[in-house]
Design a protein that fits this description.
Layout: H1 3-7, H2 12-45, H3 50-100, E1 107-113, E2 116-121, H4 140-173, H5 187-204, H6 213-225, H7 230-240, H8 242-253, H9 262-283, H10 288-300, H11 315-322, H12 330-347, H13 377-387, H14 389-395, H15 414-422, H16 439-453, H17 461-464, H18 472-485, H19 490-496, H20 501-510, H21 512-519, H22 544-554, H23 558-578, H24 584-616, H25 621-630, E3 641-643, E4 646-650, E5 659-663, H26 676-690, H27 700-718, H28 723-731, H29 734-743, H30 749-752
Antiparallel strand pairs: 1-2, 3-4, 4-5
Length: 760
């Protein structure tokens, strides 16, 4: 900053601008609150159906969020400007006060431009008669002290001005369209974030072998501190650069460099998460710098990095392990994935696997390392999709031109087809891991969970209270999954890809309402949209046979059978709660709900029996043990959280956040003690706490008997306080209809239209 600019600075115009920004911020606060309460609040309470239920509500939610972001950005700008103006006025006053102080006022200070200036001592009036020979009113020390003091003030003013300008530019460049959600209370806060980013970037500029464990700890704590700070993330990423991010992590992660240090390994594990999270946040910026950064990173993908660490890995191998964590830009993930799979197709299945082989000792993953060394970059990328639902839905999007249902391979997304039917997967476990386990297929299942449900694969029950996030796009992915795994090759695919079984069950459970709709007609005719209404625009369409086939395949696996059976039970109970037997119209609804629910349960149970008997032998001890475990599905109801028209059901025995989502009747009130659904959840919880004895073995006869008894219990509960309605239902032979629907459908290919059990 030039001396005269500060000395004669008139900040009145900046003050006027701040006043305008303050008014803008105040007005936007009002608009934000109106959007939240009136616009979004009304939309949340509205009983919309069809297109309005999804498209309009989603548009309103985004609009309300834009008002919130606009207020946040305006507030940050106002506070940074106000703080900076106050600092500059303070430095101006300090400068002028200094120039007026004795002995400095006897000096001449001249601005020489470009931030430079001169200081000289003025001549004394009596210098000619002074016997000492001193010609100046001040000493050279005074001149030097003044010069230093002015320089200090100018440096501080320049820092204030420059850091404010940089923060404001970063803030505004974050979003080309719309507004940034980054928020700062003052210039110091924003400047500190940028300065800390630059300081951490200097650590990454070093040779990773020279970085101390203490520096790694500092890096981790700082990255964690700013994990939600967009300005920090962008400044850090752009200062480091794409290639250095890769070479640094490869050097830190390589366990074969030097003596093993458990503290360093602990820091390295955290760095993988913190670095991935920070880089992901940086990709959300729309600035030109970050767009260039992302293109460079993708370009580095297929090439080896030219380093001695981690078996000289490719860019894909390193970046895919970092992106296991964090929220990444959807377009970046899709562009990255397109290039990665195109490259993978060229080398996959030809002789020695490019990624997983004895020559490649580049272990770049510290999370779940025993069963996933991180050598296959497709695994890490799919993990990223599992954490980024919108990106995953786009990556597996249904091809254009597909009809109402997916009926042929050409209507399946190329990425999905390659990963499920064509790619050669290789186990990437350590000697201590599960020898036959394929981590990549488990990650594929998680990516598809995200793509079909709209939630991260590791979402918590607290996250899911936002409600149903399915859309026409997520349904488009689900239709392809049903076509693939409900198809003729479905039983073999499920058997050969056991890591996907739990995910397929979760996906089936999340779409049980659409599956029931497909079962409600006679073939593909007479389906009842009134009884089984669409919960979102563009509901999934599987066809009657497609739904039956998919259920019959899911029933073959113990885990997927439990999840979908539980989801069906939740959905049936919620629909009955929504249609109590208080009117003929409600009873008509309930009749169809019970009948279709029984058919769905029948397909699942019959398939489970057939597969157990085929795998272990009819009436064998092992088959009976398998059925005994499958009959214990109600334990999954424990801990269910119901809100927003869905049930979030935690899966027991998982160390990570794991749950499945079941759709419910939109208007179900689940916190009332007298609802069927609430009573069933409470009963399951009480049974679990009392630890009742569950049969360790169960014959197929007993297994079907329990299925019928479950349906009968629901029937009794529905009519418990309505004896006249029960009499009417009995006269109309509801009992016979429900039993026939349960016992008359299954997985026998010829007799009951489902897929046959898998045979080796």
């Amino acid at each position: 900053m030039d001396l005269d600019v500060l000395r004669h600075g008139n900040f009145s115009q900046l003050g006027e601008a701040i006043t305008d920004w303050e008014k803008m911020t105040k007005d936007l606060a009002t608009l934000k609150e109106d959007a939240r309460r009136k616009l979004k609040g009304a939309a949340d309470k509205a009983s919309w159906a069809g297109v309005n239920a999804q498209v309009s509500r989603e548009f309103i939610d985004k609009t309300a969020q834009e008002f919130a972001d606009a207020h946040t950005q305006a507030d940050s700008i106002t506070k940074i400007l106000k703080d900076t103006r106050g600092e500059l006025i303070g430095y101006r006053d300090e400068l002028n006060d200094t120039l007026e102080r004795v002995p400095y006022k006897y000096c001449t200070v001249i601005d020489t431009g470009h931030g430079t200036f001169t200081v000289t001592g003025n001549p004394r009036p009596d210098w000619a008669s002074d016997p000492s020979g001193e010609t100046s009113a001040v000493s050279q020390k005074d001149v030097d002290d003044l010069r230093n003091e002015i320089q200090r003030i100018l440096n501080k003013a320049t820092e204030s001005d420059n850091t404010a300008a940089k923060a404001l530019k970063l803030l505004v460049d974050q979003a080309k369209y719309g507004f940034s959600s980054a928020h700062y209370e003052n210039r110091d806060e924003a400047a500190e974030a940028v300065a800390d980013a630059d300081r951490m970037a200097k650590i990454l500029a070093k040779n990773p072998h020279d970085v101390t464990t203490t520096e790694l700890a500092s890096l981790n704590s700082t990255l964690a501190k700013y994990k939600n700070d967009p300005l920090f993330a962008e400044e850090f990423a752009t200062q480091v650069g794409p290639k250095k991010v890769l070479t640094f992590w490869a050097g830190i992660a390589d366990p074969y460099q030097g003596t093993y240090d458990p503290d360093r390994a602990k820091q390295a594990k955290q760095l993988q998460k913190n670095l991935g999270t920070t880089i992901g946040l940086a990709t959300l910026s729309d600035s030109d710098k970050m767009e260039s950064w992302e293109k460079q990173m993708i370009k580095l993908g297929p090439d080896q990095l030219g380093i001695d660490d981690a078996s000289n890995p490719t860019g894909y191998a390193v970046m895919s392990n970092l992106m296991r964590f964090g929220d990444y830009d959807d377009q970046f993930l899709n562009d990255y994935g397109d290039k990665l799979l195109a490259y993978d197709k060229k080398v996959n299945g030809e002789g020695i696997n490019l990624w997983v082989n004895n020559a490649n000792q580049g272990d770049l993953n510290y999370w779940g390392y025993k069963n996933d060394r991180g050598r296959d970059p497709v695994t890490g990328f799919l993990e990223a999709l599992g954490h980024n639902p919108d990106a995953s839905t786009q990556f597996f999007a249904q091809p254009d031109g597909t009809g109402d249902t997916v009926n042929k391979d050409s209507e399946v997304n190329d990425h999905l087809k390659f990963l499920t039917k064509e790619r050669v997967w290789v186990s990437d476990t350590t000697l201590d891991g599960k020898h036959d386990y394929i981590a990549g297929r488990d990650s594929l299942g998680r990516a598809l969970e995200a793509a079909t449900t709209g939630y991260s694969a590791d979402a918590s029950a607290k996250d899911v209270v936002a409600g149903d996030r399915r859309t026409a796009a997520t349904a488009g992915v689900m239709e392809q999954v049903v076509y693939l795994y409900g198809g003729q090759d479905g039983p073999k695919m499920l058997h050969d890809q056991p890591e996907l079984a739990d995910s397929l069950g979760k996906m089936g459970g999340a779409y049980i309402d659409d599956i029931d709709y497909e079962l409600s007609g006679i073939g593909d005719h007479g389906k009842d949209g009134a009884e089984f209404p669409a919960r979102y625009a563009g509901r999934a369409r599987f066809g009657n046979q497609g739904a039956i086939d998919f259920l019959s395949v899911l029933g073959q696996d113990e885990n997927s059978h439990k999840v979908v059976t539980t989801a069906q039970h939740f959905y049936t109970l919620s629909m009955l709660d929504a249609h109590p037997p208080t009117s003929d119209a409600n009873m008509d609804h309930a009749r169809d709900i019970m009948t279709v629910g029984a058919e769905s349960r029948g397909i699942l149970d019959n398939s489970r029996v057939q597969q157990a008997e085929t795998t272990y032998g009819e009436n064998s001890e092992e088959a009976n043990k398998a059925l005994g475990r499958s009959a214990d599905w109600k334990k999954l109801m424990v801990g269910a959280v119901v809100a927003g028209g869905v049930a979030a059901v935690p899966l027991p025995g998982s160390t990570a956040a794991a749950l499945f989502i079941a759709p419910l009747a939109a208007d179900t009130v689940t916190d009332a003690a007298n609802t069927l659904l609430g009573q069933e959840i409470d009963k399951a919880t009480d049974d679990a706490e009392s630890d009742p004895l569950v049969p360790s073995q169960m014959t197929s006869r007993e297994f079907y008997g329990q299925g019928v008894d479950d349906l009968g219990s629901t029937y009794d509960s529905y009519f418990k306080d309505h004896p006249q309605a029960r009499n009417k239902a009995d006269e109309q032979q509801w009992v016979q209809e429900v039993k026939s629907s349960y016992l008359g459908t299954g997985s026998h290919e010829n007799d009951y239209r489902g897929r046959p059990p898998y045979k080796d």
